[in-house]
Design a protein that fits this description.
The chain is of the alpha+beta class and 173 residues long. The chain has one domain. 60% of the residues lie in helices and 10% in strands.
Amino acid sequence: MICKKCGNEYDDKYLFCSKCGLAANAPYNSNNNSNSNSDSGGKRKYFIGMNTAIIGAFLLIMSVFTPFKATGKVRVTLLDGSGTDGIIFLVLAALIITFIVLKIFIPSIAVSAVALIFMIIEVYGASEDFQSFSLFGEEFYTLPGTGFYCLILGCFVAFIGSVIALCCKIKSK
């Protein structure tokens, strides 16, 4: 018997092709099966990109509410002080999630790029604070907190996820 899918010749006593696994009596349409296999792989990567971007956006949100830097027992978040830094990152994260859910990837990439720029500015400004100082004979260190690392990771993950989602969407068409 000759397999309808791969052309492999096999004995009639077998129920399945030994090369591709197609059932001996199964109808096979080469156009339908090849397209469905490639589409499912493209859609899977497409959703991986979307989920990655959403995870990055949630890391951005987490960076706003967790300590950005710490000096001794004092923890400072992005909402402390004027709070505008934290609000900017919350708005950017909300926009990234909105664009990803609506499957509008070019604006999502643009917003992620803006978040990267603001992240670089924020990290540069905070890096000047990360030093040791002495007060009344006691040594203090200002160290980056969890929010600092979540901000960096979240911006990069959101940007990369948005790019992957766009690339997979273009490839699947």
